[in-house]
Write a structure and sequence with these properties.
The protein is built from 19 helices and no strands. By secondary structure, the protein is an all-alpha fold.
């Protein structure tokens, strides 16, 4: 080929290129394959774009499943739901697909959709532990905790090694004010997976609620050992120290946490409570305001804290003010 042709191309090559780009099936396959390669390389935004463009050319269940998976892996659960709806409509007996769809619907708080998919899954496999587990989760989200505990217990009868079922039951029991029962489940969790931070944190919360502060402290320390960069473990320790009247230790724990993570809103909120207990109302108000500036959505839950703090400060000022204003 001449230099001229290499640079500008000839009419035959241009015609061939036009034929190639106008072949929908070929373009579809290129986009789909590129999406799969990008997914395997964890280049998820490009993979999603490829799958989306491929589906504009042709409706294909496999490509749609790849797109749903990519959405789920990148935390775009709401975007995955329409894909999962189409897939379950074409494969109503696919148990794994129904479970994936139900789990996604629960995360999006679309409980009616979750119920529909779980009913389908239950018809296909009524004793499947994962179906029973998700049914328990749905009951819990709908505030039917007694039935939720019964359902998750049923799941454990079919699979006693289903750790996420123990975790769910412990959380439900804690929310029901039954920490002693929850401790039984969290003890099982930490025995099975002692290096799992989430299990140690839940164990510590259950122990603290069951009035076992020393054991709770050990569990929170174990969580911190499992993940030295944990934010929740030192926060729970600070709350535990405060509850057991070790205020100086609670304050130091909060200070250390804030020094390492100056944008952690919850740490300022907890330190504000500790400062209030230490009669440092001005410092407490500053910390609570800082917490709100970092996380404005918690304004409703903290309104009462600010009101109580303001009332106490006003009362203290009036006591010091001889003029009564």
């Amino acid at each position: 080929m001449s230099l001229f042709n290499r640079i500008f191309g000839n009419s035959d090559q241009q015609a061939q290129k036009t034929d190639e780009t106008s072949d929908p099936e070929r373009n579809f396959q290129i986009l789909k394959d590129d999406g799969v390669r990008a997914r395997n390389m964890r280049e998820m935004p490009f993979a999603i774009q490829c799958f989306q463009e491929a589906l504009k050319i042709k409706d294909d269940a496999e490509t749609l499943s790849y797109l749903a998976e990519a959405y789920l892996l990148t935390g775009q659960t709401e975007n995955a739901l329409p894909c999962l709806e189409k897939l379950t409509a074409t494969e109503p007996d696919n148990l794994q697909l129904l479970l994936t769809a139900a789990h996604a619907a629960l995360k999006c708080q679309q409980y009616d959709k979750a119920q529909t998919w779980l009913e389908q899954a239950g018809q296909a496999a009524p004793d499947e532990p994962h179906v029973l587990y998700l049914e328990a989760q749905l009951l819990h989200e709908r505030h039917n905790d007694i039935m939720a505990v019964a359902k998750v217990t049923q799941a454990l009868m079919h699979d006693e090694k289903l750790l996420m079922a123990y975790e769910l039951r412990a959380k439900i029991l804690l929310s029901m004010g039954q920490p002693a029962e929850a401790v039984k489940d969290t003890t099982r969790l930490t025995a099975e997976a002692p290096d799992q931070e989430d299990y140690q944190l839940l164990h510590g919360q259950a122990l603290a609620a069951a009035q076992q502060p020393e054991a709770a402290e050990a569990a929170f320390q174990a969580a911190l050992e499992a993940n030295p960069f944990s934010l929740e473990a030192p926060l729970h320790l600070a709350q535990l120290y405060s509850a057991t009247h070790r205020l100086d230790k609670a304050l130091q724990t909060c200070n250390d946490l804030i020094e390492a993570h100056p944008d952690y809103a919850e740490a300022y909120k907890v330190r504000g409570a500790v400062k209030m207990a230490l009669h440092n109302e001005a410092g407490a108000a500053d910390d609570l305001k800082k917490s709100l500036s970092l996380k404005p959505q918690q304004v409703e839950e903290m309104t009462g804290e600010f009101t109580n703090m303001e009332n106490k400060m006003n009362e203290r000022y009036r006591n010091l003010n001889p003029y009564g204003f």
